[in-house]
Amino acid sequence: MSNTVSDASPGEATALLSRSNDPTANTHRPRILARSAPVLIALIALAVLYFTKTPPSWFDSGVLPQDPREAADVILSKAPVIDGHIDLAWLVRLEFGNNVTAIDLDKPTLGQVDVPRLRAGHVGGFFWSVYVPCPESNGEDPGKDFLKATSSVRDALEQIDISHQLIRRHSDTFQLALNSRDVTDAMRRGKVAALLGLEGGHHLGNSLGALRQFAALGVRYLTLTHFCHNVFADSCGILKAPKPLHHGLSPFGETLVQELNRLGVLVDLSHTSDATALAALNVSRAPVIWSHSGARAVCDVSRNVPDEVLQHVGTGPGQRDAVVMVNFVPEYVSADQEKADLKAVVDHIEHIASVIGRKHVGLGSDFDGMDTTTNGIEDVSDFPALIAELYSRGWNADELGGLASGNFLRVFAAAEDVAREMAREGVLPAQDLYEKRVDIASK
């Protein structure tokens, strides 16, 4: 044990303080208490920091284990992972017909996500993707002007319903989160924060009114496109960008982005074309996200973000704060599938960080939305292995805590701030209608 508090560990310091407060330990108690007062203040401050928000100095003071995997577990115990995109609800639709009684998340599932693996991976929250494929993939034809009725709105509502059912069914694990405070509250309580993200503007049925109702049901990000264009914006396609329709955002799409800002719903730029992403970065008042995308400089497919778009992310003039949450789909990790492994995923993270800084990177796995997984990070239990790899490459604990969840929470809270500002300014719900609709007259 150390002889002075200044060079004692927290546990040793506590022991010293307890001994000094023991009336039988020393007859010169007043002098000891006087000397102990600064110690008491320091220990109280340490306890507050330890049990609320661990600062970089806590990690940098030699407390972390040298072993990268052990260090990763310590870091993630303080800053659990928030995954930007998990397709659990789609798996339940695809494999079980949305029958919640047919799947038990407390036991191993067919996919990459269940409660035991979430716990093993130190997952503190994730976005449940509200998703069904583009109408064309379902054998439906929305028409060149997107005016023909499809099942997208109905199916999106079903996916929200199944998400809510599963969250309630496993309420001992999940806690529905509607804002950044809910997320941190869930994590403090040892729960997994459950957020909803609507993946693709085709789910809106060309309607801002539908968007507002989805927000009322808990949706907290909208991916502007999926693999298809829609009335709002152009998609990046799958591996190669298709012929553009709007050359970015349509005028109606610009209104959509502004309405998302007003609602406090995050603008998600995964799946969008480069022109759409640049336009949205320019139009949005609030920070944006890429919920599950990689770096095109590492794997040259249209689904990944190019450097010329990344360079518009930041807090400088002409930039917008954002977080790019890196995904693990093998086709987007490496052009050579045999090289699609954990280290390649980390290469994406490091490249994005080298362009825009480590405060703008997060994690968005796409688990349960991929047919094959990336070697070394094959389900939600493998997050510590990823953190360990980055730790071995020189990332410090504060940076890794940001990657795991802090960077996303910053952006989420800032988007909520913008929504409050717009409310104070008296910004009203947008009344715009899709200009080509003929079923209702615009007034």
Automatic annotation (TrEMBL):
List the biased-composition ranges (Polar residues).
17-27
Q: Which InterPro entries match?
A: Metal_Hydrolase (IPR032466), Pept_M19 (IPR008257)
Pfam families membership? Peptidase_M19
Q: Where exactly are the transmembrane stretches of this chain?
A: 32-51
Q: Which UniProt keywords apply?
A: Dipeptidase, Hydrolase, Membrane, Metal-binding, Metalloprotease, Protease, Transmembrane, Transmembrane helix, Zinc
Care to name a GO molecular-function term for this sequence?
metallodipeptidase activity
Where in this protein does the record put region Disordered?
1-29
What catalytic activity does the UniProt entry give for this protein? Answer: an L-aminoacyl-L-amino acid + H2O = 2 an L-alpha-amino acid
Q: Which cofactors does the annotated protein need, by name?
A: Zn(2+)
Question: EC no.?
Answer: 3.4.13.19
Top enzyme class: hydrolase
User: Keyword Zinc: yes or no?
Assistant: yes
CDD domains of this UniProt entry?
Answer: rDP_like (cd01301)
An annotated GO BP: proteolysis
**Which family does the UniProt entry place this protein in?**
Belongs to the metallo-dependent hydrolases superfamily. Peptidase M19 family.
Q: What is this protein called?
A: Dipeptidase
Species of origin = Russula ochroleuca
